[in-house]
Amino acid sequence: MSLLGVMRGVVSSVRSGGSSASLPGPAPEELTQVLGYLKPKDVQLIEEAYEVARAAHSGQYRQSGEPYITHPIAVAKILAEWHLDAQALIAALLHDVVEDTPTTKSEIAKKFGKPVAELVDGVSKIDRIEFATLQHAQAENFRKMLLAMARDVRVILIKLADRLHNMRTLGAVSPAKRRRVARETMEIYAPIANRLGLNMIYHELQELAFSHLFPLRYRVLAKATKAARGNRREMIGRTLEAIKKKLADGGIRASVQGREKHVYSTYRKMIEKHLSFSQVHDIFGCRVIVDDVPSCYLALGALHALYKPIPGKFKDYIAIPKANGYQSIHTDLIGPYGVPVEVQIRTEQMHRLAESGVASHWMYKDDSEKLSELQKQTHRWLQSLLEIQNQSGDPAEFLEHVKVDLFPDEVYVFTPKGKILSLPRGATAVDFAYAVHTDIGNRCVAAKVNGELVPLRSELRNGDRVEIITASHAKPNPGWLQYVRTGKARSNIRHFLKTMQYEESASLGERLLEQALKPFKGSLAEIDEAGWERVVRDSGARSRHEILADIGLGKRLPAVVARRLLRNTEHRDDPRGGGSVTIRGTEGMAVQLATCCRPIPGDSIVGSIKKGQGLVVHASDCGSIARSRRNEPEQWIDVEWDPRTTKLFQAAIHVMVENQRGVLARVASEVAEAGSNIDAITMEEDRSMFTTMHFVLEVANRQHLARVMRALRRLREVKKISRARE
Ligand code: MN
Fold first, then answer.
1. What is residue 721's predicted lDDT score, i.e. its pLDDT?
2. Is the pLDDT of residue 7 over 70?
3. For residue 84, what are the contacts with CB-CB under 8 A and spacing of at least 6?
4. Ligand 1 centre and the CA of 29: distance in Å?
5. What is the pLDDT of residues 308-324, one digit of tens each?
6. Are residues 701 and 603 in the same domain?
7. In this model, does residue 5 exceed pLDDT 50?
8. Which residues of 116-145 are buried (b: 16+ CB within 10 A; e: fewer)?
9. For 146, 479, 500, 505, which has the most beta carbons within 10 A of its beta carbon?
10. Contact 509, 549 (CB under 8 A)
11. 138: pLDDT strictly greater than 80
């Protein structure tokens, strides 16, 4: 007690001419009654802190006219709701004293210990920051704030509680200040709350900020939301009952709740997707909370059996959590009356994490693996901020790095040496490889993310440590173009492929030329250097290589070049003696298998050499080539399959099936059973009894395809099956 007396003495002696004597009194009940989760010793310390704060702020008033002390009490109460520890609550009570009263940091340290003084100091530092928006001038301040929270997450939790209370009472301040604070909340504090997984605070901050930034829009939308809720009460009740019953029938213990749409997220969806209020709001959200992870998937299965899922809307954030640790299964269903139902399925523990993020540590005294993983993740994130700070002295650059983390359109990842690269969201390991160095991109064969081997197409996530494995013989694959995100990767791959195509075309050109020489009983071996030089000169080409590549690319006719090469030699023209070019399917880009007829070994084939296209191989009976073969015979050459080829080829089939649940799964498993792969599936939107599915399959040859089709024909649901030619 004597210590408290000393402290009080310090505070009042420093304060000059305090008008109203601050009589010591018990801490208000509204505070003490929420401290039940703390030890009595801690509660006593908090009461002492209250006393210090009350004395220090006495005579100060908020803009609303209330005594200032009501603010620190409210902040401490919010933190008590999250069950934060005594140090944090003490710091909350004292968070404005260093800033607004003569009390110093060292006085607080003496009385309540250094950790509390550090917390107060951290919060005060953030308070001194004024950022109108996230712009260059504010970069330095933003950095300070993130660094303050990097040292102790509790600093930002106190700051967020402080901001939450200020936002709840923002009506009292001037309109100009209101707008500034609301914008700052929207642009900086809400994203930080989101990044830390504090979902409830995130949404409340957003709603409050929105209501102050656009009061009219907020009022209109809030009213519409309320009205819509009333209108749909019956539908919602019925849907919830149906879901509960279905889960109970399946023996799945679950609690099922409807989800209210936030006004701000409704607004944003309307703006971003150009939708009307009713389009956004005609979606019913509901949440299913189950006991464990296996039950999540069981519940998913049950709900998909109850209502038809909307294709492409299923997301498994349990297997792949979001960057802030969020886990859930999301799926969209078509509910009764055709109303879309957005369902989230998660366990109780995932739910707590989703609502409270890092704060769950204090709230639930939860020591589970998941939570400690989340804490580690958060810690790593904060730690990485400190590391970036050390690497780049430039605040603007630092801000850029942090922004990509708070604002989810970019990801930043680490090289094995700890260098940071920022890439657009959706960037893959291939983008990363090219971002490091063009040679690494061109030679990459695999990637390790956080020490684990992953496919090159894997999307990178914030904080990933990426290592690229290269091989000296490796080459870029045209397929990469389908998933790379960065311009650098794209242009480099294109450039390489062009060069490679040139090489492959030259080697095909050589084979075509050899074939063209045969009718004249000639061969490339007997053409000497001088013969080549003459032809190169006469054709206006730069080199023999170029002529060969031109032939391969279809820019020169092999027969013409052959004639020129043989001009000075004794050869008879005998067009019947020609052989044909053999196709292995592994020639690369110089030989293309036409996608209209998708020829496979066993089909009779012909080749066309069109300018700039290289050799295109069609099935002889392909409908799209008949006219050209009649009118431009010089373009067509004989080709045949190389019997030694072991490659798999793409063939297309149509399958007409009875429209039943699970039919696709049965067809797919039959295909796999027959030793084939599915490369692509498209389905006709058809709600009638039958539907046609189009498959692109991988097969070795005609016999193999016939086997697959026979197997499918045996399925009861399959009504008709044919090879696709068009
Ligand atoms: Mn405050």
1. 93
2. no
3. 154, 157, 359, 362
4. 21
5. 888 777 788 887 777 66
6. no
7. no
8. bbbbbbbbbbbbebebeebeeebbebbbbb
9. 505
10. yes
11. no
| 32 and 121 share one domain | yes
Distance 78 CA to ligand 1 centre (A): 12
Angle of helix 215-231 relative to helix 199-213, nearest 10 degrees, comes to 120
My answer on whether 620 and 655 are in the same domain is no
Q: For the segment 506-526, what is each residue's pLDDT rounded down to a tens digit? A: 888 888 888 888 877 788 888
**414 pLDDT higher than 60:** yes
* CATH code of the domain covering residue 699: 3.30.70.260
Name the percent of the chain lying above pLDDT 70. Answer: 82
CA nearest neighbour of 700 among 690, 708, 710:
708
- Cβ contacts of 168 within 8 Å, gap of 6 or more: 208
* Burial (CB count within 10 angstroms: exposed 0-12, middle 13-18, buried 19+), residue 710: exposed
Based on the domain organization, do 693 and 612 belong to the same domain? Answer: no
Cα–Cα distance measured from residue 33 to residue 12, given in angstroms and rounded to the nearest whole number:
28
Is 292 annotated as catalytic? Answer: no
Q: Side-chain half-sphere of 446: how many Cα atoms within 13 Å?
A: 6
Residue where a domain stops, chosen among 593, 617, 641:
641
Determine the pLDDT at residue 9.
31
Range of the domain at 333: 219-357
Overall domain count for the chain: 4
Predicted confidence band at 47 (pLDDT cuts at 50, 70, 90)?
Answer: very high
Q: What is the mean pLDDT of the chain?
A: 80
Residues 40 and 134 in one domain: yes
Q: Examine the pLDDT at 389 and tell me if it is beyond 60.
A: no
CA atoms of 301 and 297, how far apart (whole Å): 6
The one catalytic residue in 30, 99, 394, 679 is 99
Whether 668 and 532 share a structural domain: no
Q: Assess whether 591 and 687 both reside in one domain.
A: no
pLDDT of residue 369: 61
Q: pLDDT value at position 141?
A: 54
Q: In this structure, is residue 433 part of a structural domain?
A: no
Neighbouring C-alpha atoms within 13 Å toward the C-beta of 632: 11
User: Any idea what the Cα angle at residue 520 is, between residues 517 and 521, rounded to 5°?
Assistant: 85
Whole-number Å distance between alpha carbons of 503 and 327 = 49
Residue 420's alpha-carbon distances to 115, 203, 434, 459, 483, in angstroms, are 32, 31, 14, 16, 22
> Could you tell me the distance, in angstroms and rounded to a whole number, from the CA of residue 163 to the centre of ligand 1?
7
The answer to whether 118 and 75 are in contact (CB under 8 A) is: no
Q: Which of 81, 100, 282, 621 is catalytic?
A: 100
**46-50, 200-204, 387-391, 517-521: which has the minimum mean pLDDT?**
387-391
**Do residues 464 and 452 touch, judged by C-beta distance below 8 A?**
no
| 626/658 same-domain check | no
Tokens coding 204: 């409340």
Going edge to edge, which strands form the sheet with 677-683? 677-683, 690-699, 649-658, 718-723
- Please give the pLDDT value at position 14: 34
pLDDT for the residue 16: 35
Considering just the CA atoms, what is the radius of gyration of the chain in Å?
Answer: 36
Choose the final residue of a domain: 99, 134, 168. 168
Q: What is the pTM of this model?
A: 0.51
Q: How far is the CA of 403 from the centre of ligand 1 (A)?
A: 25
Instruction: Provide the pLDDT for residue 467.
Output: 92
Distance 399 CA to ligand 1 centre (A): 25
Residue 21 neighbours by CB under 8 Å, 6+ apart: none
Question: Tokens 């929420």 label which residue?
Answer: 34
Q: How far is the CA of 379 from the centre of ligand 1 (A)?
A: 25
